[in-house]
Amino acid sequence: MSGLLLDGKSAVIYGGGGAIGGAVARVFAREGARVFLAGRTQSRLDAVAGDIAGAGGKAETAPVDVFDQKAVDAHAEAVAAQAGGIDIALNAVSVPHDQGTLLADLTLEEFMRPIDGFLRSLFITSQAVSRHMGGERPGVILTLSEPGSKLAAGGILGHSASAAGKEAFSRVLAAELAPRGIRVVCIRPHAVADAPAAGSYTKELFEPMAAAGGQSVEDMLTDGGMVQGTLLKRLPVLSEVAETAAFLASDRAGAITGTVANLSAGALVD
């Protein structure tokens, strides 16, 4: 009997070449999953797939634009045909957006960018994979959110609304898909301390806020205001997000659905 959490499972990761998506993909593969990486940049997907193959895992890549509904549907159908279905899906797609601009100076376009981008991609990918889950082959859809969903802080209107929307989307989708044996769980990390070094756009996102406080992004993520606002006096790291995702995707978490896993290091206390 295998001790691997995801032995024999098939997993699709959208944004699989990114910092979080790549970290999750590596852990999924380590735990026995056959991983299908989808994203816009082939070179970044290939880098993650190379790491997985080098460690003895299985990973395949495909350039997919998550905003192209027909392309996402076709990719999901191809994966399901090849793997016999889809067991796990994670949307780890990032949408560049503004943080730090107050209402008076925020444009409607900047406000709507994360709301439209994150929720549009989440709808398209969830709909595509859910067609190939359920029944005799239960499925798990994992989503990602941020503490902005509950923080009362200035300068993050679009970010907060999109984060709250992703959490609401996940809860309602869990209720809708539960009769088919599909679980939906949202993961809410804080800013991830080692994400910039892994190639995420975190540095670009937080540079204006850090500069306003006279700090570098690295300082802000290690001992700055974000860190001091957590109970643990630190931020989560990629390995913690990835290991949590693997557990939630596994049968050991079979009773967990319709909820948010709080990985904010105590920035939010639910």
Helix-residue proportion:
40-55%
Strand order of the largest sheet: 3-2-1-4-5-6-7
Kindly report how far apart the N and C termini lie. Answer: 37 Å
Structural class: alpha/beta
The CATH superfamily is identified as: NAD(P)-binding Rossmann-like Domain
Taking all Cα atoms into account, the compactness measure Rg is: 18 Å
- The succession of helices and strands, N to C, reads EHEHEHEHEHEHHHHE
Counting DSSP E segments of at least 2 residues, the number of strands comes to: 7
- The poorly predicted ranges are none
- How much beta, percentage-wise? 5-15%
- Topology-level CATH name: Rossmann fold
Mean pLDDT: 91
CATH class: Alpha Beta
The main sheet comes to: 7 strands, parallel
Please identify, by name, the CATH architecture. Answer: 3-Layer(aba) Sandwich
Number of domains: 1
Family: Belongs to the short-chain dehydrogenases/reductases (SDR) family.
Organism: Actinacidiphila bryophytorum
Keywords: Oxidoreductase
Pfam family, one: adh_short_C2
Write a structural description.
The chain is an alpha/beta fold and 270 residues long. It has one domain: NAD(P)-binding Rossmann-like Domain (Rossmann fold, 3-Layer(aba) Sandwich), CATH 3.40.50. The protein contains 9 helices and 7 strands, in the order βαβαβαβαβαβααααβ. The protein has helices at residues 19-30, 42-54, 69-83, 108-130, 157-177, 202-212, 217-222, 225-228, 238-249; strands at residues 10-14, 34-39, 58-63, 88-91, 139-144, 182-189, 259-263. It has a 7-stranded parallel sheet, sandwiched between helices. α1 (19-30) packs parallel to α2, α1 (19-30) packs across α9 and α4 packs parallel to α5 (157-177). The termini are far apart. The mean pLDDT is 91.
